[in-house]
Design brief:
The chain has 286 residues and is α/β, with parallel strands linked by helices.
């Protein structure tokens, strides 16, 4: 905020209206915050403002005027498996502005979001173990069993579980669990979308909660574990709905913390597992 001293208030008011789109009145203290700095710069130059440097100008009376770009709020989404479908939570600032259940990942990606964090492996390995899985298990410590090893692509593409077990033993020396194989359609679906949609990143709720809490958590299947996770999100400033139709509490919490990590990624604050990983795909982001 600053008080401007001018020789001709009417002329100055016209200048500020034309150059910066601001209605100025005598004695008014003003500050300049714009949505698009490049567009504001072009407008100021066209109106005759003297450019000291981009974003800094002088008005006809020699007053220095600084334009700053208004911080942009990233709208992000968190996506978590929920029974036979997907739970989706959309964050804007600290508010959950949308939360719903859908049947396909393609439907989840219809949301208006700069980043979509999804709890599913992205970057299918050709040989085990996948570095992101190893790093994530180490990171969550006592909750390591929540991070399932990602099967290799040949196993996921096997048409039956019996054939997948044979392929797994031949190529890796170990069989594959029925639970891991059961996720194959979802892993392959998300992997395909992620390679063509740069908004999509991989997250893991237990990794994200561990990052948020800086400590191991109680099991999420327990009531006290769910309460602990809700409190963590609320302490982080996120305004959670009490409930969402067709989404169970654990899935709502997981999708929300996935959105929390997506917001960190959008802001350039998220860290990859494994550490030092370069590139969007192949890392679990926290």
């Amino acid at each position: 905020m600053r008080l401007l001293l001018v020789r001709d208030a009417a002329a100055s008011a016209r200048f500020y209206r034309d150059a910066f789109g601001i209605e100025v009145h005598q004695g008014q203290e003003i500050a300049f915050e714009v949505d698009d700095l490049d567009q504001a710069h072009a407008r100021a130059v066209a109106a005759g403002a003297e450019v000291v440097q981009p974003g800094v100008y002088r008005d006809p009376d020699g007053n220095v005027v600084t334009l700053t770009q208004r911080p942009q709020t990233a709208r992000v989404a968190g996506v978590d498996m929920a029974g036979g479908g997907w739970a989706v939570v959309v964050l804007e600032d600290d508010r959950v502005v949308d939360a719903f259940r859908c049947e396909s990942f393609a439907d989840a990606l219809h949301v208006d979001a700069a980043v979509a964090g999804v709890d599913i492996p992205i970057g299918i390995p050709d040989s085990p173990p996948r570095p992101a899985d190893v790093a994530a298990r180490r990171f969550v410590g006592p909750r390591a069993s929540s991070v399932y090893p990602t099967p290799i692509r040949a196993v996921l593409e096997a048409p039956t579980y019996a054939e997948a077990r044979v392929v797994a033993v031949e190529l890796t020396g170990k069989s594959v669990s029925a639970q891991s194989y059961a996720l194959r359609h979802r892993i392959l679906e998300v992997d395909e979308h992620a390679r063509h949609d740069e908004r999509v990143i991989e997250v893991h709720p237990e990794v994200s909660f561990s990052e948020l809490a800086s400590r191991p958590l109680l099991p999420k299947k327990r009531t006290d574990g769910q309460a602990e996770r809700r409190v963590l999100l609320e302490d982080a400033g996120i305004e959670l709905p009490a409930s969402v139709p067709r989404i169970a509490e654990p899935d709502l919490l997981d999708a929300t913390v996935a959105a929390w990590s997506a917001r960190r990624y959008a802001a350039g604050e998220a860290l990859p597992l494994p550490e030092g990983h370069e590139g969007r795909i192949g890392a679990i982001w926290r």
